[in-house]
Design goal:
Helix content: 10-25%
Shape: rod-shaped
Strand order of the largest sheet: 2-9-12-11-10-13
Radius of gyration: 46 Å
CATH architecture of the domain at 55-63 and 193-274: Beta Barrel
Order of helices and strands: HEEEEEHHEEEEEEEEEEEEEE
Number of strands: 19
Length: 350
């Protein structure tokens, strides 16, 4: 028994046990690999669509003709012949000022002119009979002409006491009443011709080559969010503003229903061109630094990362200049779970 458990035998046994222990610990464990599940995504097919290149600007509505009705002399208002917001015609009487002095002056000069003409006729007869000199006749002729000139001045002063509409249009708020003392330049009311209405807006110098007289524009007002007003460019300014590098454009909008008023702010859209281009939803684009990527689904339903070159944008859509072909499928929803080479299942939109 002592021979069986000698030191050499014990060393061999310990060595064998240690080798077995380490062999057991380092034996590779083969785990069963689970098949990767396909990620559900939504996709769109690359196709050509019309891209409307639109120039946008903010414009201000202007009256076709506009004037502030004022008095030309200081006098008292004796009659008002209009109401606020009334539509009037050219020549229609609006306000009468006290004109008794001017009327009397006109009447006096008319009497004097009639008498001067009678004297002129009498001298003509006397000259023909050699009973008066030619110098007397010429002096009387000068007197007649002086009275005629004075009468014209008096009639002009009398006419200034009757304030009339200079053109057809719509009046503003009345600022005077009967009995008011008005002074030269004091506002009585406003008069605007708003049919048609002018629309002034500025366009960046970059788009100057795209502008031309006769071009159609579309305008929208916050007061009528669901309505578009169509007009035509009538003039383009001769200079570019050196500070803003923009050019002033004036369009004309019919405004037959008088919905637009001077001073209104309108959003202007000017169609520059229409082209068929490759368009993708913005949500399909993955930006990385200055580059852009999409995930293209191949025939085996595997998503492949691909770099693309983008161009112009419009709400919700991006133009693809390079990197995609017609008919390819691109992931639009489920981008956050995408990586190159992942299997996907395409779900229907809805």
């Amino acid at each position: 028994m002592a021979k069986l458990f000698n030191p050499v035998t014990l060393f061999v046994v310990v060595l064998a046990l240690g080798a077995g222990y380490f062999t057991f610990l380092h034996e590779p464990v083969v785990e069963e690999q689970k098949p990767q599940q396909a990620v559900p995504v939504k996709a769109t097919q690359v196709s050509e669509q019309p891209f409307r290149d639109i120039i946008e600007a903010l414009g201000t509505a202007q009256a076709n003709e506009s004037v502030v009705i004022t008095a030309q002399s200081q006098d008292q208002v004796i009659a008002v012949h209009f109401t606020d917001g009334e539509t009037v015609e050219a020549g229609q009487l609006l306000v009468e000022l006290d004109s008794r002095e001017e009327s009397a002056r006109v009447q006096e000069l008319k009497f004097r002119l009639a008498e001067a003409n009678r004297q002129y006729q009498r001298l003509q007869d006397l000259v023909a009979q050699n009973a008066a000199s030619q110098q007397q006749l010429e002096t009387q002729d000068v007197l007649v002409k002086e009275i005629v000139a004075a009468l014209e001045v008096a009639e002009t002063q009398l006419a200034q006491k009757r304030i009339v509409a200079p053109f057809d249009g719509r009046l503003g708020i009345r600022q005077v009443s009967v009995g008011s003392l008005v002074s030269p330049g004091e506002q009585i009311t406003t008069l605007d011709d708003i049919t048609p209405i002018k629309l002034d807006f500025s366009v960046p110098e970059l788009f100057f080559a795209s502008l031309e007289v006769g071009q159609t524009i579309t305008a929208r007002s916050g007061a009528y969010p669901d309505e578009a007003f169509t007009g035509i460019i009538r003039s383009i300014d001769s200079r570019v503003d050196p500070l803003t590098r923009s050019i002033l454009v004036r369009a004309e909008v019919p405004n037959t229903d008088a919905k637009l008023r001077p001073g209104m702010l309108l959003r202007v859209e000017l169609l520059r061109s229409v082209n068929d281009v490759l368009l993708l939803p913005e949500r399909a684009i993955v930006p990385l630094d200055s580059r852009h990527f999409v995930y293209v689904i191949d025939e085996d339903n595997v998503a492949r990362e691909r770099q693309v070159v983008i161009g112009r944008r419009q709400p919700g859509l991006v133009e693809i200049i390079d990197g995609l072909e017609l008919g390819e499928q691109v992931v639009t929803d489920g981008i956050v779970r995408m990586r190159d080479g992942i299997s996907v299942t395409v779900q229907e939109e809805g």
